[in-house]
Every structure is written in C-alpha cells, then in structure tokens.
Amino acid sequence: MAPYRTTRMDVNTAGKKRILLVMPDWRSATSQWTPNDHPYLNKKALMPPLSLATIAALTPEDFETDIWDESVHGFIDDDTRFPVSYDIVGIGGYYTHIFRVKILAEIFKRRGDFLVAGGAGVTAAPKEYRAYFDVIILGESEYIWPQFLHDFLEGNYKRIYKEINPVNMIHSPKPKWGNIKASMSGNYTVGAVQTTRGCPFSCSFCNEWKVFGRKVRTKTTQQVIEEIEELSNAGLKQIVFGVDNFYGNHKYAREILAALINFNKTQAEPLHFITQISVTIAADDEFLKMMADAGFNGLFIGIESPKAASLIESKKIQNLKGDLVENCKKILSYGLPVEASMIVGFDEDDEGIFDEQFDFIQKSCIPYPRIRLLQAKPGTDLFDRLILERRVLDTTKLHLAENYFDTFLISNIIPASMTRVSLFENYIKLLDRLFDMDNFTERMIGYIDLITYVPERENKEDVRITGGKLPAGLIDFICKIDQKERACVEKILNYAASKVPHQLNNIVGLIVRQQFESQNVEITKKTILSQIEFERNLDLSQCILEISEGVEVL
After folding, report:
1. Cβ neighbours of residue 83 closer than 8 Å, sequence gap 6 or more
2. Which candidate, 391, 361, 366, places its Cα nearest to that of 376?
3. d(CA 84, CA 411)
4. What are the sequence ranges of the domains in the chain?
5. pLDDT single digits (tens) 62-98
6. What fold characterizes domain 17-162?
C-alpha cells in the first residue's frame, strides 16, 4: 500500500488549515505493561495528553486540530492512513520520548509534511531535534504558538520560537479535548489538570525550576474547577494535578483544596485527586486534613534518599527538615498514600545504599515506592556538572539505543562510588525485595495501623465494598494471582475492613498497583540484565558524551 502523502501545494486550499498533534508512546521503548494489560484497570493509557489539548485550545479558529495519542490510537508508521490531510504536524513529549519522536519525524517527512516539535523534551535538548523539524518551539507555548501560526499563514515563520518570559497562567486556556473527549473515560485511567507552574526548590537532577522558574504561578480557582468539571462530565472520576509542587504556594493550595471540598459536596460520586508535592507538608496538620477531606488518594513525593549526604549533593535540602521516616508516617496517618520517588546512584551512594533504601521504605510503611536509577538529563545542574567531569554517556553508543534506549530506565551516567554493573545488579535485587508480596503486605499493614484521621465528608464511594462485597473486576484480579499472593491480599483487605473501612477503595487501588508494578519488575530486570551483559566488557571511555555534543547555545 502506498503511503498517504501531504504536499504544501494542494492541501485544504479551499478551507481551514488542519493541524495534527501527536503524542508519542514512550512505552514502545521498553515494551512495559500498559494499563489495559491489567484485568482491573482495563484502560489503554494513564491520562490524556494535557499538553496537546492546551495547544489545541491556543490554536486560532483559522485552523482545525486533531489529536493522535499513540498510546490510545496506535503507533504511526508509513502505512498509517488518516481521514484528512494536514498542513502542520506537531509532535510533543518529554525527553523520555526522544527516540520515538525522531522516528515519527522521519515517517512524516517521508510523507512530505511540515513538522513542528515542542514540549519539555525539546526545550531541554533542542539540538537533538533541530535537524528533524521545520520549526521547534522552546518553553511555554501560550504566547509563541499563536505567533508561529500567524507567521505560518503569512509564509514568514522562523525556525525557532523561544519564550523568554514566564507566562501568566490566567492566560492559559481551558484545554480543548476535541476528537478525544468522547472516548476519554474508556481510554484513560485518570484526567489531568494543571494548576500551577514553577517550584521553589532547586534540585540538581530536575530542570522544571529552571524552565518554569522558582516563583509559583497560578491559574484562578474558577479556571481549575471548570477544567475538573469538564473531565468529570466526560466520565473521569480521578484527576491528576500536573504540577511541580502542589504545596509550592501554600495560600493558593489551600484555596484550591477548599474549592475541591465544596465541589465534591455537589457530586453524587465524589472525585479523587493525585498530585506531586513535597514532604514538607508533614509539618502542616491543617493542610493534611484538608487534603484528606478533598479526596486525595495519591501523593507523589520526592523523597529520593534516606542518606543526608545524597540529599545535600542533590540540593534536596528541604528533605533534611525533621525525621524523614516520621514525616512520611505523619502524612500516611491522614490516609494519604505516599508514592515515594527514590533514586540510587548519587555520588555519595556506595553499595550500602540499597539496604538503606529498603530499610527506610519498610520503616516508613510507604505503600508504593517508585525507585529509579539516577539520570543526568539535559537542562539540569546535574547534567552540566557531570558532562564537564566526562561522566555522561552517549546513549546512541550503548546497547539499548538500537531499541530506543530507555532514558526512563537505564542510567546515562558513570557512578562515582560503584561500577555501572554493580549499580545495575544491586538495583534489580532491590526491586525484587521491595515488590515481594510479603514485604508489601508488611508495609500495608503498617500503613493501615498509622491511619487515624477519618474525613468529615460522607463518602459512599469509599464504603461500598464493605461486608465482603467486592467489585467483579477485583474478584477476577484476585483469582488470577497465585495462592501466596491471594493470602496476602485477603489479609490486607480483611485488616483494612476491620480498621479503616472508609479507606477500602484506596487500599484496593494500592494492591492493584503493587500487582501491576511487580509484573513490570520482571520486564525491567530482563532489560537491565541485557544491558549488564553488554557492558561487562565495554570501554565506557569510548561512550562519553562530549561537551560539544551535549551543550548548545541558542
């Protein structure tokens, strides 16, 4: 079948210009589980592409816009046929998507399409994308995307558009979900809303504060509630706040929580919320109470390390206030599950860090640890330091580059206190220990024992599975696990029913995630073991990313 082809000469000359916005599927890099592989989740992807829906809302009426999310609509190749032809193809994504983005660019170029790239990944490493695209958009898009489209219509566009000044978040429009709205609840597990940009902290491995600034900029409360209401009407009953730090502006965060509490009082089925936040909330009891009352059932918290020297090294000094174990327990006592981001591979980490991480997570009763190998990503202070020390690796020279080197999984640095092979070997042993069902059960029982606060709201959603009545999907899920896992699940559920019946749905969700991640552990181990074998006799000095390759001044 001949590939569909677009040319600038004959496309839509009689009507509006058309734009296709594409979100790449980074999971093609690793063949990791997708949500629809799980019998209890049964969705194609975690959340809809908020960034593309925002771009669609910024697009003037002179254009018609479609969204293609590869996680939902399928991978694009040379034989993919679209119902219409497009004047512009825009591809977004994070640095994790880098290899898939390049492949998509090559596919669309063979079709003769006009290509634009934007998003956090492009902003962090523009040099990686420049040769593949006609135009690249750097930074926040609220002002420069409409300017590019104006220039495009005038036939006088620039190769690079770069936003220098912070965008006033009031000017960020309500996302336009367009062609994906009708099927959102069937395809996505959660909805997504951005309330703020910016983070007051300056962690060395993160570039969010460098891109968006340390001053937290905010949407109005009305904007936020309107976006949530639209997602709720589309059938999504769990919302992720796509922010750098929900607690970054304390006063504003309280206003949002108060609005969420009032909003849920109007709902027959109250919504639940997930966000990224700092462990410093442990010192704010009133705030924790409001989060519980608002219906939060997931807090992604950057703990990173129990080792003080590693926190200092990474400029994560906010985590040094108080005892980290006790701070985590304080948050958990409000029935707020902690999803802890943990990192191994800092310069201060020797081989003892793996036992330290395990002991900390077990003592803290963290239900869901998300532990990763340290990455030096472009645009971060860490990257700038390590490339000068010649310790950043060129991923295209490594084994997995042939299969879209997974920038989310495999570290791209040479560690200071152990070999890469040792880092990899100890990492997969730690994953085995953390996601062992007995160790998970121990943490869950500890978490349940910590919960002392019951939200004031009467939440029918939370108590509907008491009395041994479980959703059919959960029963199917339990029946597909082995006898040991079944016994652990029954122990956790029975204990939760007797101690914290209002938390049963949250507990079920944590069990499902444990099962999901334990399956991913096996895939992760296979990938890393392959990398270990490749690197055992590899001369890393031949894989160093040179400064001239990694640094670009625009």
Report:
1. none
2. 391
3. 41
4. 17-162, 171-360+367-385
5. 899 999 999 899 999 999 999 899 999 999 988 778 8
6. Rossmann fold (3.40.50)
Per-residue model confidence as pLDDT tens digits over 111-147:
999 999 999 889 888 888 999 999 999 999 999 999 9
List the Cα angle 418/422/426 in 5-degree steps. 115
Vertex 333 angle, CA 239 and 431, to 5°: 70
Residue at token pair 């899920």 = 477
Lowest average pLDDT, out of 109-118, 191-200, 501-510, goes to 501-510
Half-sphere exposure of 510 (CA within 13 A, CB side): 34
- pTM reported for the whole predicted model: 0.90
392: left (phi over 0), alpha (psi -120 to 50) or beta: beta
Kindly report the average pLDDT of the chain as a whole number: 88
Inter-helix orientation angle 353-364/437-450, to 10°: 40
In CATH, which of 3.30.420.270, 3.30.70.270, 3.20.20.70, 3.40.50.620 is domain 171-360+367-385?
3.20.20.70
* 398 conformational bin, left if phi > 0, alpha if psi -120 to 50, beta if neither: beta
| C-alpha span between 275 and 219 (Å, rounded) | 16
